[in-house]
């Protein structure tokens, strides 16, 4: 019903407006007695065989919602009823910021992709904390953190550290987002020496808490083999807990969308099916080069159970969806979990 009826109507309107409309719809529907139970009955698959233990956390199932969907942690309790094993909120920055000028979110319907240049628009750290205090403990919550756009390079680490310390009591794991192509002054975040400084500083802060939280690094899908080798070395050197592969891409190769349309859209990060193979290759490269020495969360172009299984076969331990959730609908999560159970039974 979603793809036949609901999606065609939603896709008639501006993507960002539809996003907020959908949020309001889910929130209001969830307030009606019995609706949460209906959502759970439709989309949640519970089975011990789906559980995964990773960096000291037990996930109900390996299918998560990627950062960027619930930036301000306003809907994670309701989204838990759609079958996710974990939800990543953010990217959260210390101060609230509007992000880049609108229009900044574009569908590539023929490609089943999205281009965005949102620019870390979010309500800021304190707003996220206020929402996270309402956590009903239904599933694991990740905190994706970044820097404010106007922050000077010498203060980047301070921004990450502020978010890390303040969010520490409220999330189960952290993601250092250093790979988003939609924020200014980005070059320093790709420098290995700076990443060593950032990671070590956050790890020192982590050690001051009685219960330490896993810390992951989110990387771009456009890294070459030399850069990926540096990531493997970086993880080994810092003993970081894991990697999320991958963020959005700046590559526009082999798209069905016309050059005129792409020029009209302009800059932004590409997500969805066009980056499926690219992100899977990154996962496979990291897994093989590291001899699977660290956990990998695979994300990028998962629009079917087959896509998710390919990521896991390539070396991912968990997967996340975002654009596929928008194009395929909430049944996607159930399809992936059902496929995993079927695979377990056949092995």
Automatic annotation (TrEMBL):
GO annotation, biological process: 'de novo' pyrimidine nucleobase biosynthetic process; 'de novo' UMP biosynthetic process
Job of this protein: Catalyzes the conversion of dihydroorotate to orotate with quinone as electron acceptor.
Dihydroorotate dehydrogenase catalytic domain residues: 50-341
Keywords: Cell membrane, Flavoprotein, FMN, Membrane, Oxidoreductase, Pyrimidine biosynthesis
Protein name: Dihydroorotate dehydrogenase (quinone)
Top EC class of this enzyme: oxidoreductase
Enzyme nomenclature, EC number: 1.3.5.2
Residue ranges that the Swiss-Prot or TrEMBL entry lists as coiled coil: none
Gene expressing this chain: pyrD
Record lineage: Bacteria, Pseudomonadati, Bacteroidota, Flavobacteriia, Flavobacteriales
């Amino acid at each position: 019903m979603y793809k036949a009826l609901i999606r065609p109507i939603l896709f008639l309107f501006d993507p960002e407006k539809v996003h907020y409309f959908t949020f309001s719809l889910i929130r209001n529907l969830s307030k009606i007695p019995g609706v949460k139970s209906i959502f759970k009955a439709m989309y949640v698959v519970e089975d011990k065989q789906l559980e995964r233990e990773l960096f000291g956390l037990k996930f109900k199932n390996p299918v998560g919602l990627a950062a960027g969907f619930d930036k301000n942690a306003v809907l994670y309790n309701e989204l838990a009823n759609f079958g996710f094993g974990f939800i990543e909120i953010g990217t959260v920055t210390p101060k609230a910021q509007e992000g880049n000028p609108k229009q900044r979110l574009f569908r590539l319907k023929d490609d089943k992709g999205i281009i965005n240049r949102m620019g870390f628009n979010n309500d800021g750290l304190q707003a996220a904390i206020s929402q996270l205090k309402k956590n009903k403990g239904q599933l694991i919550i990740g905190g994706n953190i970044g820097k404010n756009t106007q922050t000077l390079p010498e203060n980047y680490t301070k921004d990450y550290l502020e978010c890390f310390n303040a969010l520490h009591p409220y999330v189960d794991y952290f993601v250092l987002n250093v790979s988003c192509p939609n924020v200014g002054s980005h070059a320093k975040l790709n420098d290995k020496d700076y990443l060593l400084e950032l990671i070590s500083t956050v790890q020192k802060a982590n050690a001051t808490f009685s219960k330490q939280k896993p810390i992951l690094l989110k990387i771009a899908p456009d890294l070459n083999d030399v850069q990926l080798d540096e990531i493997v070395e970086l993880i080994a050197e810092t003993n970081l807990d894991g990697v999320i592969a991958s963020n959005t891409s700046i590559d526009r190769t082999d798209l069905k969308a016309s050059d005129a349309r792409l020029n009209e859209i302009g800059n932004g990060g590409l997500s969805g099916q066009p980056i499926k193979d690219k992100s899977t290759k990154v996962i496979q490269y990291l897994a093989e080069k590291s001899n699977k020495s660290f956990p990998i969360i695979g994300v990028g172009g998962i629009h079917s159970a087959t896509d998710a299984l390919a990521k896991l076969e390539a070396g991912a331990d968990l997967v996340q969806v975002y654009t596929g959730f928008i194009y395929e609908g909430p049944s996607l999560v159930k399809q992936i979990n059902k496929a995993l159970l079927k695979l377990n039974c056949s092995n």
